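Dear colleagues,

For the upcoming journal club I promised to circulate an example of a predicted protein-ligand complex. I picked one with flavin-adenine dinucleotide because it came up in last month's discussion. The inputs are reproduced below in full, followed by the predicted structure.
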Amino acid sequence: MKLGYKTFVRCCVAVIVCCLLSSCYTVRLKNVYGDPEPDPFNDATDYYRYMKVREIDTTIKISVTDKDFTKLIKDCSEGIYIMEYRNTFGGILLSAVTFGRKRKVKAKYVCLKPTN
Amino acid sequence: MATTKSHPKSSWDTLHNNGPFPLKTLHVTELEGSANMFSKYDRYNDAAKEIQRLIREAADKNEGFRAYGSAWSLSHIAHQKDNMHFNSFMSIHIPIPQELSHENSSYANENLFFFECGNTIKRISEVLSSHGKSLKTSGASNGQTIAGCISTGVHGAALNVGSIQDYVVGLNLIIGDKPTDIVYLERHTQPALNDDFAKKIKAKVIRNDHLFNAALVGLGAFGFIHGVVIEAEDRFLLKRYVKKIPKDLALQLADTMDFKNSTFKIDGEVDADGKPLRPYHYKVFINPYTNDNEYVVEVMYKKPYQVPYPDPFPVIKTSLYKDLIYLLIKISEKFPKSIPWFIKQLRKTILPAVDEETLGTLYETFWDAPYQGPAFACSVGIDHTNSSKAYKVLEEMTQKEGPIPGIFAMRFVKQTEATLGFTKFPITCMLEIDGVLWEKSRKIMSLTEYSRRMIEVLQENDIPFTIHWGKNSDWKFPNLVNDMFGEKVAEWKSYRNGLLSTEMQQVFSNGFLEDTNLHLPNNTNDEDLIVSL
Ligand SMILES: Cc1cc2nc3c(=O)[nH]c(=O)nc-3n(C[C@H](O)[C@H](O)[C@H](O)COP(=O)(O)OP(=O)(O)OC[C@H]3O[C@@H](n4cnc5c(N)ncnc54)[C@H](O)[C@@H]3O)c2cc1C
């Protein structure tokens, strides 16, 4: 049976969309120890409910000679409870077209609860 | 100085979305930093003054004031419509030197620890572990605060140990705004710390078993629990097995607790005569919608702490798509008959993996439970000898009048001394059904209706029962608390009445106490009750 042109295009689009979607994913790194810093006002109905969430959403520009970069976290004096990194298709594309000079950073993190 | 941020807030909810409930003000107190106030006792006492100020402020406005911990209770016990206080940042722990032990104390001084109310079970376990110690038991997870745990009576499945409140040996309560309103309670028959300790926290000491037992599971109504003294024990390991065993055998063990003479035997877990050992923990999981001849059981045996042992944590933990859960629940509301099928499909996520074996500390075994969306839990306590009878009638009701989106479990807990502790039987079987919160539809009854039917069915079958204070129920069911606790209710009220002024009883009351008729003081005003014995 011969595949129609339209069907072929649809299939291709579906495959590309699937690839794009799967290239956007989230990774969580969690500390086994300690409590999350709480936030009784965070009524979100997701994983972070009642936790104090901090976010990084920025694009870092580095020079061609720089291999990588380290972004410093200055507001977690007790350490990190959880870090969620989001990899987006836009971010990968941006890095590719700028030959790695611009790197999108999209992350969320929760600090460890300060101990008294 | 400890500082409180008071935020206007129109509603409040539990972790698992069992509300929302109306609110006026949410208070969050943070302690003075240790750089500015070096002594832990000073910072603790300074925080007590701040709480007293908040209590007076509420009383002057004729309003209520209620502390809460992690909002893990699924009932409305933690809710107060005027003022709620978030305790999490009040989490000092103070070591107890030998010279503060009471001369008649039967506790080893090295096992006594003093924790402020906002410390979580996880944090406490970490502190204890750094001293080579462990809690004796915990719930299935670790995010609750110590004050929240004892206020409702949190338990695990430690059949020879009891619940969390059962290893609390001292209670520091703030019952008003006067200097004499800071009290330190202990049992007179089992004193732990001496009066010098009480002086350090500027508290009046009252050693009285009856008062202590009444305040122990205090439902948030015995004032502000500022700190507790707990008795820990040497760190130990738990060897955990998950097995599928014949239904009749699982229920026979539940009814008899006679492990020694049972056919349930695990290689290596036997005594010198080859008879099965009595486990530390016994839990039965039951899917009420299958005709399986076997149940999944989880058993744990206590072992001495020895390193090294294999890492008990999995490296990767996955969670279900939340949208999938919401979708399932929406379908269940429209087509309840699909619930058993869904439960069957999700069994790998809901039930522990059969034949799994792990070895770890209490801390590692009962670890974090992430938020997974709106949830319900109904949990009744019955004498363990009634386990199979109670399960049978509740299963029948659930099958006939349900289904509802949850599965049953049984856990077994040694008797508590707390006056209103729901683990009141010699060994209590906590028979619970947990699942995803649903909304009433034309085809499925509401959660309150379901929990009312649980009460009615147990009453109709003459099965004495209690209900977990922190779980869902029809809390307005007529005469419910008297039916569960009989004369103990009057005793609890008398001690509350004696300890707290009428004004403060109102301040520390809430809708939950009103629904259960526990807010009304007794007519008796027995002055002699609140004395050291
Ligand atoms: C994921 C999950 C797992 C659970 N597992 C178990 C389990 O295994 N076993 C079990 O028994 N229960 C279990 N529960 C129920 C829960 O542990 C209890 O309801 C517990 O009381 C919640 O503790 P909390 O710190 O969140 O207190 P909250 O729910 O915030 O408050 C409970 C009560 O304590 C009072 N309170 C809190 N702090 C103070 C204070 N400083 N002074 C005076 N009163 C105070 C509140 O007013 C309220 O009445 C579970 C709940 C969840 C969500």
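Two points we might discuss: Chain A has one domain: 24-111. Chain A has a mean pLDDT of 87.

See you all on Thursday,
B. R.
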